[in-house]
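2024-03-11 09:14:02 INFO queue: dequeued item Shikimate dehydrogenase (NADP(+)), len=273
2024-03-11 09:14:02 INFO validating residues
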Amino acid sequence: MTDRYAVIGQPISHSKSPTIHNAFAQATHQDLRYEAVEVPAGTLADALQRLHGDGFLGVNITLPHKADAPMLCEMISERAQLAGAVNTLIRSDAGWRGDNTDGEGLIRDLQRLAYAIKDQHVLVLGSGGAVRGMIAPLLAEQPASLTVSNRSPWTPEKLAEQFRTVGTVTPRTHATLKGDRFDLIINATSAGHAGVMPRIPAGVLAKGGACYDLTYGTAHAPFRKWAEAQGATRIADGLGMLVEQAAAAFALWRGVRPETETVLASLRPSQGA
Ligand SMILES: NC(=O)c1ccc[n+]([C@@H]2O[C@H](COP(=O)([O-])OP(=O)(O)OC[C@H]3O[C@@H](n4cnc5c(N)ncnc54)[C@H](OP(=O)(O)O)[C@@H]3O)[C@@H](O)[C@H]2O)c1
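2024-03-11 09:14:37 INFO prediction written
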Protein backbone atom coordinates (compact mmCIF):
# COMPACT_ATOMS: atom_id res chain seq x y z
CA MET A 1 0.00 0.00 0.00
CA THR A 2 1.26 3.50 -0.83
CA ASP A 3 2.45 5.44 2.23
CA ARG A 4 0.41 8.58 2.90
CA TYR A 5 1.46 12.04 4.09
CA ALA A 6 -0.32 15.39 4.23
CA VAL A 7 -0.01 19.09 4.90
CA ILE A 8 -2.88 20.51 6.93
CA GLY A 9 -4.01 24.09 7.47
CA GLN A 10 -6.43 26.71 6.26
CA PRO A 11 -6.19 28.06 3.62
CA ILE A 12 -4.30 25.15 2.07
CA SER A 13 -5.09 25.03 -1.65
CA HIS A 14 -2.16 27.41 -2.40
CA SER A 15 0.37 25.17 -0.58
CA LYS A 16 3.49 24.20 -2.51
CA SER A 17 4.19 21.31 -0.10
CA PRO A 18 2.46 18.57 -2.17
CA THR A 19 4.49 19.59 -5.26
CA ILE A 20 7.72 19.65 -3.24
CA HIS A 21 7.22 16.34 -1.41
CA ASN A 22 5.91 14.44 -4.42
CA ALA A 23 8.98 15.65 -6.35
CA PHE A 24 11.25 14.48 -3.49
CA ALA A 25 9.48 11.09 -3.55
CA GLN A 26 10.01 10.70 -7.27
CA ALA A 27 13.66 11.75 -7.08
CA THR A 28 14.42 9.34 -4.22
CA HIS A 29 12.24 6.47 -5.61
CA GLN A 30 9.90 6.39 -2.61
CA ASP A 31 6.39 5.00 -2.95
CA LEU A 32 4.31 7.67 -1.22
CA ARG A 33 1.45 10.07 -1.76
CA TYR A 34 1.42 13.56 -0.19
CA GLU A 35 -1.75 15.62 -0.23
CA ALA A 36 -3.14 18.93 1.08
CA VAL A 37 -5.98 18.64 3.59
CA GLU A 38 -8.08 21.64 4.62
CA VAL A 39 -8.37 21.76 8.44
CA PRO A 40 -10.21 24.79 9.88
CA ALA A 41 -9.15 26.47 13.14
CA GLY A 42 -10.51 24.68 16.20
CA THR A 43 -10.65 21.24 14.54
CA LEU A 44 -6.98 20.22 14.74
CA ALA A 45 -7.43 17.50 17.40
CA ASP A 46 -10.18 15.77 15.43
CA ALA A 47 -8.21 16.03 12.20
CA LEU A 48 -5.07 14.48 13.73
CA GLN A 49 -7.08 11.62 15.16
CA ARG A 50 -8.72 11.03 11.77
CA LEU A 51 -5.40 11.12 9.89
CA HIS A 52 -3.90 8.67 12.39
CA GLY A 53 -6.90 6.36 11.97
CA ASP A 54 -6.55 6.59 8.18
CA GLY A 55 -2.94 5.39 8.45
CA PHE A 56 -1.06 8.59 7.55
CA LEU A 57 2.64 8.31 8.42
CA GLY A 58 3.49 11.99 8.63
CA VAL A 59 1.90 15.43 8.57
CA ASN A 60 3.13 18.96 7.98
CA ILE A 61 1.32 21.65 9.93
CA THR A 62 0.84 25.18 8.72
CA LEU A 63 -1.29 28.21 9.65
CA PRO A 64 -3.31 28.45 11.83
CA HIS A 65 -2.25 25.28 13.71
CA LYS A 66 1.53 25.48 14.30
CA ALA A 67 1.28 26.78 17.88
CA ASP A 68 -1.63 24.46 18.85
CA ALA A 69 0.03 21.26 17.60
CA PRO A 70 2.57 20.79 20.46
CA MET A 71 -0.11 20.05 23.06
CA LEU A 72 -1.62 17.38 20.82
CA CYS A 73 1.67 15.47 20.45
CA GLU A 74 2.62 12.61 22.74
CA MET A 75 6.23 13.82 22.52
CA ILE A 76 7.98 16.83 20.95
CA SER A 77 11.60 17.47 20.03
CA GLU A 78 13.75 19.93 21.95
CA ARG A 79 13.85 22.34 19.01
CA ALA A 80 10.04 22.27 18.70
CA GLN A 81 9.80 22.93 22.43
CA LEU A 82 12.10 25.94 22.10
CA ALA A 83 10.17 27.19 19.07
CA GLY A 84 6.84 26.67 20.84
CA ALA A 85 5.55 25.37 17.52
CA VAL A 86 5.41 22.14 15.54
CA ASN A 87 5.50 21.99 11.73
CA THR A 88 6.17 18.25 11.28
CA LEU A 89 4.42 15.25 12.81
CA ILE A 90 5.83 11.75 12.74
CA ARG A 91 3.43 8.89 13.35
CA SER A 92 3.93 6.76 16.45
CA ASP A 93 1.86 3.80 17.66
CA ALA A 94 -0.17 5.90 20.06
CA GLY A 95 -0.30 9.23 18.24
CA TRP A 96 2.15 11.80 16.87
CA ARG A 97 5.67 12.97 17.64
CA GLY A 98 6.18 16.67 16.92
CA ASP A 99 9.21 18.41 15.46
CA ASN A 100 10.04 21.81 13.97
CA THR A 101 12.21 21.98 10.83
CA ASP A 102 11.80 25.72 10.07
CA GLY A 103 15.03 26.81 11.77
CA GLU A 104 17.02 24.03 10.12
CA GLY A 105 15.45 25.03 6.78
CA LEU A 106 16.58 28.64 7.22
CA ILE A 107 20.15 27.74 8.15
CA ARG A 108 20.48 25.23 5.30
CA ASP A 109 19.22 27.81 2.81
CA LEU A 110 21.60 30.48 4.12
CA GLN A 111 24.42 27.92 3.79
CA ARG A 112 23.27 26.95 0.29
CA LEU A 113 23.43 30.63 -0.66
CA ALA A 114 26.84 30.98 1.04
CA TYR A 115 25.58 33.74 3.34
CA ALA A 116 27.94 34.29 6.27
CA ILE A 117 26.47 34.09 9.79
CA LYS A 118 29.52 33.39 11.98
CA ASP A 119 31.01 36.61 13.43
CA GLN A 120 28.33 38.68 11.66
CA HIS A 121 26.01 41.19 13.28
CA VAL A 122 22.59 39.72 12.49
CA LEU A 123 19.24 41.52 12.70
CA VAL A 124 15.93 39.65 12.58
CA LEU A 125 12.84 41.75 11.82
CA GLY A 126 9.68 40.42 13.48
CA SER A 127 9.12 38.28 16.53
CA GLY A 128 6.31 35.88 15.69
CA GLY A 129 6.23 32.09 15.55
CA ALA A 130 8.82 31.75 12.78
CA VAL A 131 11.37 33.80 14.73
CA ARG A 132 11.02 31.59 17.80
CA GLY A 133 12.06 28.65 15.65
CA MET A 134 15.02 30.52 14.17
CA ILE A 135 16.74 31.89 17.26
CA ALA A 136 18.47 28.76 18.59
CA PRO A 137 19.71 27.63 15.12
CA LEU A 138 21.00 31.16 14.40
CA LEU A 139 22.78 31.37 17.77
CA ALA A 140 24.37 27.96 17.09
CA GLU A 141 26.09 29.53 14.04
CA GLN A 142 27.93 31.93 16.40
CA PRO A 143 27.02 35.35 15.04
CA ALA A 144 28.88 38.34 16.56
CA SER A 145 25.46 39.49 17.78
CA LEU A 146 21.80 38.62 17.28
CA THR A 147 19.22 41.39 17.49
CA VAL A 148 15.47 40.82 17.24
CA SER A 149 13.37 43.83 16.38
CA ASN A 150 9.60 44.21 16.21
CA ARG A 151 7.10 47.01 15.65
CA SER A 152 5.43 46.27 18.99
CA PRO A 153 7.90 46.19 21.91
CA TRP A 154 7.06 43.30 24.23
CA THR A 155 7.67 40.21 22.12
CA PRO A 156 11.42 40.80 21.53
CA GLU A 157 11.88 41.35 25.28
CA LYS A 158 10.03 38.11 26.00
CA LEU A 159 12.10 36.22 23.41
CA ALA A 160 15.37 37.54 24.83
CA GLU A 161 14.33 36.34 28.27
CA GLN A 162 13.08 32.97 27.01
CA PHE A 163 16.35 32.25 25.13
CA ARG A 164 18.68 33.63 27.87
CA THR A 165 20.05 30.15 28.63
CA VAL A 166 20.69 29.48 24.91
CA GLY A 167 22.50 32.73 24.12
CA THR A 168 22.25 36.50 23.97
CA VAL A 169 19.44 38.08 22.00
CA THR A 170 19.27 41.87 21.94
CA PRO A 171 15.63 43.06 21.93
CA ARG A 172 14.69 46.20 19.99
CA THR A 173 11.80 47.96 18.39
CA HIS A 174 12.26 49.05 14.77
CA ALA A 175 12.37 52.73 15.77
CA THR A 176 15.23 52.19 18.25
CA LEU A 177 17.49 50.58 15.59
CA LYS A 178 18.62 54.03 14.43
CA GLY A 179 22.42 54.25 14.50
CA ASP A 180 22.98 50.45 14.65
CA ARG A 181 24.66 48.52 11.78
CA PHE A 182 24.04 44.92 10.72
CA ASP A 183 25.82 42.64 8.24
CA LEU A 184 22.80 40.41 7.67
CA ILE A 185 19.16 41.46 7.93
CA ILE A 186 16.51 38.72 7.91
CA ASN A 187 12.92 39.79 7.37
CA ALA A 188 10.63 37.46 9.32
CA THR A 189 7.61 39.74 9.42
CA SER A 190 4.42 39.01 7.51
CA ALA A 191 4.18 42.67 6.44
CA GLY A 192 4.89 41.76 2.80
CA HIS A 193 1.58 39.88 2.61
CA ALA A 194 -0.10 43.27 3.12
CA GLY A 195 2.20 44.76 0.45
CA VAL A 196 4.23 46.82 2.94
CA MET A 197 7.70 46.94 4.49
CA PRO A 198 8.11 47.58 8.24
CA ARG A 199 9.36 51.08 8.99
CA ILE A 200 13.09 50.56 9.54
CA PRO A 201 15.47 53.53 9.99
CA ALA A 202 17.75 54.07 6.98
CA GLY A 203 21.40 53.09 7.27
CA VAL A 204 21.04 49.97 9.46
CA LEU A 205 22.47 47.71 6.76
CA ALA A 206 26.28 47.79 6.91
CA LYS A 207 28.21 48.46 3.70
CA GLY A 208 28.48 45.14 1.85
CA GLY A 209 25.61 43.71 3.93
CA ALA A 210 23.17 41.00 2.83
CA CYS A 211 19.41 40.63 3.15
CA TYR A 212 17.17 37.56 3.38
CA ASP A 213 13.38 37.40 3.40
CA LEU A 214 11.27 34.54 4.75
CA THR A 215 8.48 35.42 2.34
CA TYR A 216 8.48 34.70 -1.39
CA GLY A 217 6.35 35.50 -4.42
CA THR A 218 4.57 38.85 -4.47
CA ALA A 219 4.91 39.23 -0.66
CA HIS A 220 8.69 39.45 -1.10
CA ALA A 221 8.56 42.58 -3.30
CA PRO A 222 8.43 45.32 -0.58
CA PHE A 223 11.44 43.91 1.31
CA ARG A 224 13.45 43.42 -1.90
CA LYS A 225 12.75 47.05 -2.89
CA TRP A 226 13.87 48.27 0.55
CA ALA A 227 16.99 46.06 0.53
CA GLU A 228 17.96 47.33 -2.93
CA ALA A 229 17.54 50.93 -1.74
CA GLN A 230 19.84 50.16 1.23
CA GLY A 231 22.55 48.89 -1.15
CA ALA A 232 22.37 45.19 -0.16
CA THR A 233 24.98 43.13 -1.98
CA ARG A 234 22.83 39.98 -1.78
CA ILE A 235 19.05 39.61 -1.53
CA ALA A 236 17.18 36.30 -1.36
CA ASP A 237 13.58 35.27 -0.79
CA GLY A 238 12.32 32.40 1.41
CA LEU A 239 11.47 29.85 -1.28
CA GLY A 240 14.75 28.05 -0.58
CA MET A 241 13.88 27.89 3.14
CA LEU A 242 10.48 26.40 2.26
CA VAL A 243 12.15 23.65 0.22
CA GLU A 244 14.86 23.04 2.83
CA GLN A 245 12.41 22.73 5.75
CA ALA A 246 10.44 20.28 3.61
CA ALA A 247 13.60 18.28 2.87
CA ALA A 248 14.32 18.10 6.61
CA ALA A 249 10.79 16.77 7.25
CA PHE A 250 11.14 14.27 4.39
CA ALA A 251 14.42 13.03 5.92
CA LEU A 252 12.70 12.53 9.30
CA TRP A 253 9.95 10.48 7.66
CA ARG A 254 11.87 8.49 5.08
CA GLY A 255 15.44 8.38 6.40
CA VAL A 256 16.78 9.85 3.16
CA ARG A 257 17.62 13.51 2.53
CA PRO A 258 16.49 14.62 -0.91
CA GLU A 259 18.51 16.93 -3.14
CA THR A 260 16.83 20.37 -3.12
CA GLU A 261 18.25 22.43 -6.01
CA THR A 262 16.19 20.73 -8.74
CA VAL A 263 12.90 21.15 -6.88
CA LEU A 264 13.73 24.75 -6.01
CA ALA A 265 14.52 25.57 -9.65
CA SER A 266 11.24 23.97 -10.78
CA LEU A 267 9.28 26.22 -8.38
CA ARG A 268 10.73 29.40 -9.84
CA PRO A 269 8.92 30.52 -12.98
CA SER A 270 11.87 32.83 -13.67
CA GLN A 271 15.14 33.63 -11.96
CA GLY A 272 13.78 37.05 -10.88
CA ALA A 273 12.55 36.26 -7.34
N1 LIG B 1 9.92 30.45 3.89
C1 LIG B 1 9.47 29.65 4.82
O1 LIG B 1 9.69 28.44 4.82
C2 LIG B 1 8.69 30.25 5.96
C3 LIG B 1 8.51 29.51 7.14
C4 LIG B 1 7.79 30.11 8.20
C5 LIG B 1 7.27 31.38 8.03
N2 LIG B 1 7.44 32.05 6.85
C6 LIG B 1 6.92 33.42 6.68
O2 LIG B 1 7.47 34.23 7.71
C7 LIG B 1 6.56 35.28 8.04
C8 LIG B 1 6.34 35.31 9.55
O3 LIG B 1 5.67 34.13 9.95
P1 LIG B 1 5.20 33.92 11.46
O4 LIG B 1 4.65 32.55 11.55
O5 LIG B 1 6.28 34.33 12.41
O6 LIG B 1 4.00 34.99 11.57
P2 LIG B 1 3.39 35.64 12.89
O7 LIG B 1 3.61 34.77 14.07
O8 LIG B 1 2.00 36.05 12.54
O9 LIG B 1 4.29 36.98 13.12
C9 LIG B 1 4.18 38.06 12.23
C10 LIG B 1 5.26 39.09 12.54
O10 LIG B 1 5.18 40.10 11.51
C11 LIG B 1 5.01 41.38 12.14
N3 LIG B 1 4.19 42.24 11.26
C12 LIG B 1 3.04 41.90 10.64
N4 LIG B 1 2.60 42.94 9.90
C13 LIG B 1 3.49 43.95 10.06
C14 LIG B 1 3.59 45.28 9.55
N5 LIG B 1 2.66 45.77 8.72
N6 LIG B 1 4.65 46.03 9.91
C15 LIG B 1 5.60 45.52 10.75
N7 LIG B 1 5.55 44.27 11.28
C16 LIG B 1 4.51 43.50 10.93
C17 LIG B 1 4.34 41.10 13.47
O11 LIG B 1 4.59 42.18 14.34
P3 LIG B 1 3.61 42.50 15.61
O12 LIG B 1 4.05 41.56 16.70
O13 LIG B 1 3.90 43.92 15.93
O14 LIG B 1 2.21 42.24 15.16
C18 LIG B 1 5.07 39.81 13.88
O15 LIG B 1 6.35 40.09 14.42
C19 LIG B 1 5.27 35.00 7.25
O16 LIG B 1 5.27 35.82 6.12
C20 LIG B 1 5.41 33.54 6.85
O17 LIG B 1 4.72 33.25 5.66
C21 LIG B 1 8.15 31.51 5.83
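2024-03-11 09:14:37 INFO annotate: The chain has a mean pLDDT of 96.
2024-03-11 09:14:38 INFO item closed
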